[in-house]
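REQUEST ID: PR-0412
SUBMITTED BY: lab tech R.K.
PRIORITY: routine
TASK: structure prediction, single protein chain
INPUT:
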Amino acid sequence: MSKPETVFKVGAVRAAVFRNTIEKAGKSIPLPKVIIEVRYKDKTGQWNGTNSLSINDLPKAILALQKAFEYLMEHRDAAQQNESAETDLYS
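STATUS: complete
OUTPUT:
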């Protein structure tokens, strides 16, 4: 997996922002994606990640995702430089 563009951490919850590139009509278009993960230590002390959130993780996930959304909106113009006016990947 490629390295994320940025990561927002709130406690054990992480929202990692990726910008994959797809080909459409001969153009390279950056496609923003966010992966949410909760980090934890297992019984052996090894770090692991899960996409399953407990009730206590939900407010942290909301905040991390909000920060990821704000980041993507702030960096939207840079991403759209390679897009046509007809293509809106953010809607």
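NOTES: The CA atoms of residues 24 and 83 lie 10 Å apart.
REVIEWED BY: pending
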